[in-house]
Amino acid sequence: MISYLKGVLSRKEPVIAVIDCQGVGYEVNIPLSTFDKLPEIGNEVKLLVHYSFNEVDGTRLFGFITSEEKELFRYLIAISKIGPKLALSILSGLSVGDLIHAIQMGDVSLIATIPGIGKKSAERLIIELKDRVGSIRADQLLKEGGIGRSDMIKEAESALLTLGYKQFEIRKAFSALLKEQEFTSSEEIVKAGIKALYKKRS
Predict the structure, then answer these.
(1) Could you tell me which residues come within 8 angstroms of residue 85 by beta carbon, excluding any fewer than 6 positions away?
(2) pTM
(3) What is the rounded average pLDDT of the residues 159-180?
(4) Segments forming the whole domain that contains residue 176
(5) Are residues 74 and 125 part of one domain?
(6) Are the C-beta atoms of 10 and 25 separated by less than 8 Å?
(7) Are residues 120 and 78 in the same domain?
(8) pLDDT at 146
(9) Is 76's pLDDT higher than 90?
């Protein structure tokens, strides 16, 4: 299984990148969100890879700059009637952050603006992913927050897990809280998290 490719970028197009790994050129399918972050041709690049094989298309590699893109892509292709090509179109139509926000807010109209996604497909996508994408948003916030903030969030998550809350519920709550408020301790995050989770359950 290929986890990632690291080499010299020898070609790039909006949907394709070719990476030269010690003389072997790997053609990788990419979304626009990854294309926009690629370096100039001739520079070193690392793409996280999803490996796919079927009898019609053979072997295909799908590449992503960030782990959030790769994780969301895998969530998307697990949905009935959304294949890799459509999943790339979805990631090309909306940024990871905007797509996750649209899913969490139930914004059918925004998701339905993506070519190939109608209203019914958008509704199904939201239903299937609403409780899963919170972890991606939380991971992004951890990265953006720096080491100290990251440690606080992890401690708060561990405390809430001990109290019996489910991880996807905790991360979804943190996703909203950390965007709206500033916290100075894990205790503050735990208290705010309990309040948010209680409101949701009641």
Answers:
(1) none
(2) 0.68
(3) 80
(4) 134-201
(5) yes
(6) yes
(7) yes
(8) 44
(9) yes
